[in-house]
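Hey,

Quick one before I head out. I ran the complex with uridine-5'-diphosphate-xylopyranose overnight. Inputs first:
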Amino acid sequence: MHSQRRSDTPMAAYQVNPDRSTKPVGIKKICCIGAGYVGGPTSAVIASKNPDIQVTVVDYNRERIEAWQTDDLPIYEPGLLEVVKFARDGNLTKRTPNLFFSTDVDRCIAEAELILLSVNTPTKSLGRGAGHASELSYLESAVRKIGEVAESNKIIVEKSTVPCRAADTLRDVLVATAKPGLHFEILSNPEFLAEGTAIRNLLNPDRILIGSLKTPRGLEAAQALAAVYGAWVDPDRIITINLYSSELAKLAANALLAQRISSVNALSAMCESVGADIDEVSYAIGLDKRIGSRMLKASVGFGGSCFRKDILSLAYIAESLHLFEVADYWRSIVDINEYQKDRFTRRIVRCLYNSLSGKTLAVFGFAYKKDTGDTRETAAITVIDNVLTEGANVRIYDPLVKETQIRHELKNTTARLDCAEKQLTVCESAYEACTGADAVIILTEWDEFSNQGEPVRRDSGHGRKTEERAGRKVDWARVAALMRRPMFVFDGRNIVDAGALEGLGFRVECIGKA
Ligand code: UDX
Ligand code: UDX
């Protein structure tokens, strides 16, 4: 009865124990395909911690690659520039450079022993599964390219979030396109970094997950990748599991994180009716160690490139397995998120006497969260679209996001209409945005918008609008002097001390507070 092999128990399945004293077996060159929010920071940290490994990030977007070669990086991430410069600019640090950015995809693939796939996997927009399933065509074309140019065996690592059993698809494409006799071992090594804290997450990860086949070659590949992380991650944080469990674990982690936010947002609606305070409710439930305090902050709705896409992908997979109740369960998380964004807009309209026509709303923040310039799936798109439809004039200020990007994000909404275009102004400061405004709507929790806490400290770098403003807190008394009466603040992030603002004459409406 006790004859169950150790490898049959899930977690002890294959304990990888990278020996810090040995160099990664065989891995001297890594190629990362995709120089985005995941590929760039991940490669920079791997290179900085593995001076003996040459890490090259490739992308078909020349402009992006060129930007990675400068000090004006294509993405803003606290601490990123320092890590990139450390690994990339050896001359400055007396360290041999080992981080490179290139558009020479073929050469870099051909030379590497290990390839990280970090291309984007957005929601499909065409055909079967459109609006739900993940689009794998970028991944497919990346592995086709690998198949075409490879002259030696490779370890191929899924960094991008993928549907379950994507590894089988990739293997199939490789077998069909590659030269006979070559071997490609596919690993799943999902990234759990959150934007705004990516470098911290990469340097001190909760866990590194490596999924592999249980074959000797699969295990050997997992060992090689574990050794790369072993340069700075504690061995007991590096866990290896079945390839398909790893693929599913990434989708599941994002779904569970988003589920917490939707749960709290659903409760916030109840709080507003029963006179409870969602921040107090979250605090109280988060003290239970089984629940924990993180990802329980009520908001206007979650955004970002991952949550919505990954939940829809999970639901689509469930549906294709005929697990319709399971699919409905996951999809309800996205439904509540849409509801929360609409509910927030309805509250604005109600408070402003049921008409926004001819009124001016100052929007503070467009990014989907603070400390990033990323605007993918930001709740701001929906809220701004809704208030434009109601006839409001909208004046947007975000400390990091540029006007072109804001207009690009809004181009498929009401703002695409000529009349709505005229209702929209993108401002260079919070004060410019709120001049003559009837209300301020806080959509991103940038520290400078809060009227509490420490002064803001932020490293300089990528695209800050002006050095003078960077790091300054908004002076709410000055805001009050610029606005029309009565003046409202709709805090979609619960970052202001409402009492203090009321003292300045504002009427303040927060999420989940009556
Ligand atoms: C990542 C993951 O890959 C995605 O699956 C996950 O869900 C979110 O995080 P991210 O790094 O945020 O995506 O995407 P993005 O910033 O768009 O970067 C992807 C890069 O891949 C882009 O620079 C794009 O130019 C590049 N790319 C895309 C290629 O080089 N080749 C392609 O065929 C497609
Ligand atoms: C998420 C996951 O956290 C990360 O592990 C995964 O690799 C990628 O997806 P990210 O989207 O970058 O990361 O940021 P996250 O901090 O999770 O926030 C996502 C959204 O939820 C943001 O819009 C944020 O403002 C919102 N949020 C987050 C809340 O509304 N409340 C919270 O308590 C936390």
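The two ends are 60 Å apart (CA to CA).

Talk tomorrow,
K.
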